What does this fold into?
Amino acid sequence: MSRLALAAAVIAGLLASTVALRAQRAPASPQTGLPPDILALACAPAGAHGQPDSALRVTGGQDAFTRRNYGPGDLITINAGTNNGMQVGQEFFVRRLQKERDRAVTRETPGTIRTAGWIRVYAVDDEMSLATIQYACDNVETGDYLEPFVLPTATPRGPKTGKPEKGNYARVIAGNDRKLVFATGEYVIIDRGKDHGIVPGSQFVVYNDKKQPGNFLFESAEAVAVDVRETSSTLHVTFSRMPVTVNDYVAIRK
It folds into this structure.
């Protein structure tokens, strides 16, 4: 056998052994059949003012080597089984808390909830479960936490009504992956929620402070609330004259 043929045979053998050592593959995930606006809303960020309550975590995958990131087609493990009430077919959102390094998540220093996607439980034993990734907004990572899966509903969009309530402003906080700048069609988080009477469908005007003494705030964008929590809300930017940035002022239309 020539050296070239021998080298080709060795490479083929290595590739075959590599395939054998890859992760056990999950059954193919079905198409969601969901409209783009619902998928975008399901993946939208949310604000956080504390640590998540859920004890359910992604603990790894079915691999012959250590990994931290997983996507569709991978089997992942969960730190709960039948002893914790887990059942085949249950679905969960996979989420992670993003924050500034070495800073606690509080009302004064909020974090961002990043939705990585959602999963379905595939097999269970007493203390652990295997799950398949049904839809990926981002990579699923070891340590991500789980919350019950409930699809969002589209938010009614009405015409702009009411004048913005000036002098009583919310502020824009960081988005997915601590993003600081946003455009039309994207989602932003503000530091007020049900505690200030905000409901899904509430309309807002976003203002940029050019920091010019004696000047008005610049009306930079329009937005509508699509997800409202106790102390934060996620807004969909429906129109912008300039990019929306962290710390911009936000006024609700009353």
Summary: Residues 3-21 form the longest helix (19 residues). The first strand starts at residue 46 and ends at 48. The chain has two domains: 36-148, 170-252. The chain is about 10% helix and 35% strand.
